[in-house]
Amino acid sequence: MSAGVYKFWNCTLYLFLICHAQIIPTSTATVKGNETDHLALLAFKATIIHDPQGAFSSWNMSLNFCSWAGITCSKQHKRVTSINLASKGFVGSLPSDIGNMSFLTEIVLTNNSLQGTIPQEVDHLFRLKVLSLGRNALEGNIPDTLGQVNRLVILELFSNNLSGMIPNSVFNLSSLNVFNLANNQLQGSIPSDFGLTHHNIQKIQLSDNRLSGNIPVSLSNASKLQVIHLQFNNFSGPISVDFGRLLYLQNLSLEYNNFGLGEQGDLKFIDSLVNCRSLKILKLGANNLQGSLPRSIANLSIKLTMISLADNWISGSIPPDISKFINLIFLSLEHNNFTGIIPPEITQLGKLQRVLLSNNRLTGNIPASIGNLSMLDEVHLENNELNGTIPPSFGNCPMLVLLDLSQNNLSGTIPNEFFHVSPFSIKLNLSQNHLVGSLPAGIGGLDTIVELDISENEFSGFFPTELGRCITLDTLYMQGNFFRGHISHSMRNLRGMQNLDLSRNNLSGEIPDFFELPLKYLNLSWNHLEGEVHTKGVFANASEFSIVGNKELCGGIPELRLPRCSSDSDRSHKHKRSWVQDLFMIGFILVLLIVGYHLLPRGKKTEPPAVSIRPISVLPIRLSYKILHQATDGFSRANLVSEGGFGSVYKGELGPEYNGKAVAIKVFNQEATNSFSTECEAQQHIRHRNIVKIRSTSSSTAKKGKIFRAIVYDFMENGSLDRWQHLTCRTSPDELSMPQILNLKNRINIAIDVASALDYLHNQLDYPLIHCNLSPSNIFLDTEMSAYVSNFGLAKFLIDRRIFNGFAGPSEYAPPGKKTN
User: Fold this and answer.
1) What percentage of the chain's residues is helix, strand, coil (to nearest 5)?
2) Nearest to 762 by CA among 772, 776, 775
3) How is the protein disposed in the membrane (predicted)?
4) CATH architecture of 395-565
5) Which of 461, 390, 465, 387 is nearest to 424 (CA)?
6) CB distance 650 to 629 below 8 Å
7) Is 464 exposed, middle or buried (0-12, 13-18, 19+ CB in 10 A)?
8) What are the C-alpha distances in Å from 539 to residues 154, 405, 494, 497?
């Protein structure tokens, strides 16, 4: 072998050995690195003590760890590059071994229940770009070593229990795009040069912490910023950032800090926001900003969907140019010093859903066209100085679930249109105004409402039965009005009621037994209630209810110190004795009439015409439901005269085609068909000057196929006799013109009229007619105080006295000693 060939083979062998020597360590390192990742993953699995979704079910030896759920490996080296196990419900902690996976570029473990601290060993992860550990229960300080992971682009540690200072090394991570440490307990301030070193940052989210100091002016140098969330901290001082340089800014939230404390012209920074043409959310509420809004606010981005300036000291008027923000969804200006009117231009914001203008000094009317805002779901106008009436157009807002108009100077009635489509499923508050009239029937359509407050107004009329249809009511406040009559039995339907206040009205009757339901608060004080106070439910605890100012109550728990209730026999004896006195008076007057009749000089005696039981036509017409509906303004409670067991009586105006006189329209309940027929039959056979005359009847089909039955009478201006016998010390507005008492002449004339009607019914018909329901509530008085007997729904003709078995009517009609059926 020649020397040259020898040298060639020697060189070849040498190169082979060198290459072989290099290959072996590399392969060994790769194997060692894979095993390190494998062991680190097993260590992580071991620290998880609860895996409700079974995320680790694939983490076993039958599969290579690169195939385990949530794990991604590099193709070349088969090293772990990503751990993504968000929202798995893990309970456990992060092991220090996680720092051994040096190829990691992403750790995403958000929305779990990881506890303990962030391992110091994160500084070994020099390739890491995403660290997302938000919505866990991590605690302790942010490790200073995290600042050495200088390739981090996304840092999300929000919604944990982290505390202490944010390390300066973390603030110096200049490669960050997203910096989100919100909702922790972190302290300290933002370095003054923060914006100078973060040219790529897009989101800075440090809200809900304990940070303080000023917003660094250098923030305006971070020209790619889109989101600035610093709300719910202790930042203070003037806002001096030149936001005009942040051309991509979309969300600026600085509320609930101390910005502007003691400064003048605090709102001038808004001028610089004009250049932020992408701005969608502006939240500056709950600071100490003062002064009036600059005119430049009208030049802000038309992309704005939210403006919140609430809880400041801002004064002046609301600019009409607010109508330019055609994409506005949320407007919050409450708790300021705004004056002037609510600009009508606000009704041009067709996308507006929530309007909060409460606790200012706004005056004038609520814009009549507010119903144009069909997307409204919540309106707060309380505690202002608004006047005028409630716009009926509110009824055109089908999404409106909460409306608060309380503590203003609103007047007039509640229009029935108010309840056309608005569900008010959360709250309707009209309290502390000057509203009058009765509650419209439409209020019964609020069958999903939770809280209703109409207190401290001037509402009148009978207790609204329609409230019984509001079956989801939790809280009902009606105190400080003029409501009268008995508490409606329909209220027993409100089984979820927790708080009820009916105090300071003119309610009468007994306390219903259904109030023993598990109420938490009940106030019935300062009414005219009578009878026994219950002892169960809310009535078992004197601190949960009030009944003061009702002088006729008795019984109840001992703490009330009320008189003992009379026994049933005592009450029956007292009641009968009262009727004995009344009947004795009527009998005495009849005797006087008979004696007077025989003593007066008379001409030739003539026989009265015989009265036979044959039909007498009432009117040649029958009025339709539509006509009576129009005559009573939709059977409005403002026209309600009285309510009874068989139906309700309304005042109506039929118009010139029917002589234009006021009439009383008695509408029968669905279950009172027999009473309607009985009354029509009885009235067809009687005619007397002291018996109310039927002018017409109506039997037709109303809404939803229900049968509508009504009888039309002459209207009696002075109401029923019981209203004169039981006048209250506080009169409602519609009673102011009535005399306060019946004088002796009136009493005698009324007794004569009633006795004359009864004499006719009992003695001048072929067959006596027994009224069976005669009481002061069924005796009506006209303008001359003449009395008329009405309500013949229980009347019976006495065809054969020998088979008469007693009375079918109420016990009040029974003479002393008679037992009722």
Assistant:
1) 30, 25, 45
2) 772
3) Single-pass membrane protein; Single-pass type I membrane protein
4) Alpha-Beta Horseshoe (3.80)
5) 390
6) no
7) buried
8) 61, 33, 17, 15
Q: Do domains 1-188 and 395-565 have the same CATH topology?
A: yes
Locate 818 and state its tokens: 């008679």
Question: Fold for domain 611-813?
Answer: Transferase(Phosphotransferase); domain 1 (1.10.510)
Residues 6+ apart with CB under 8 A from 699: 622, 676, 707, 708, 709, 710
What token pair was written down for 86?
A: 């968000």
Residue with token string 């009379």: 566
Neighbours of 567 (CB within 10 A): 9
Burial of 705 (0-12, 13-18, 19+ CB in 10 A): exposed
E strands within 733-778? 769-770
Among candidate residues 810, 770, 793, the one with its CA nearest the CA of residue 678: 793
Over 50: is that where the pLDDT of 813 sits? no
AA identity, residue 75? K
Task: State residue 346 phi and psi, 5-degree precision.
Answer: -65, -25
Q: Is 785 left (phi over 0), alpha (psi -120 to 50) or beta?
A: left
Domain covering 1-188 in this structure, CATH number: 3.80.10.10
Confidence at residue 616, expressed as pLDDT on a 0 to 100 scale: 34
What are the residues facing 403 on neighbouring strands? 379, 428
Q: How far from 600 is each of 594, 596, 597, 603, CA to CA, in Å?
A: 10, 6, 6, 10
Beta strands in 364-494 (DSSP E): 378-380, 387-388, 402-404, 409-412, 427-429, 434-437, 451-453, 458-459, 475-477, 484-486
Domains of the chain, by residue range, sit at 1-188, 395-565, 611-813
Rg (alpha carbons) of the chain, rounded to whole number: 42
pLDDT tens for each residue of 62-112: 899 999 999 999 988 889 999 999 999 999 999 999 999 999 999 999 999
Tally the residues of the chain.
821
8 Å CB contact between 469 and 445 = yes
Q: What percent of the chain has pLDDT over 90?
A: 50
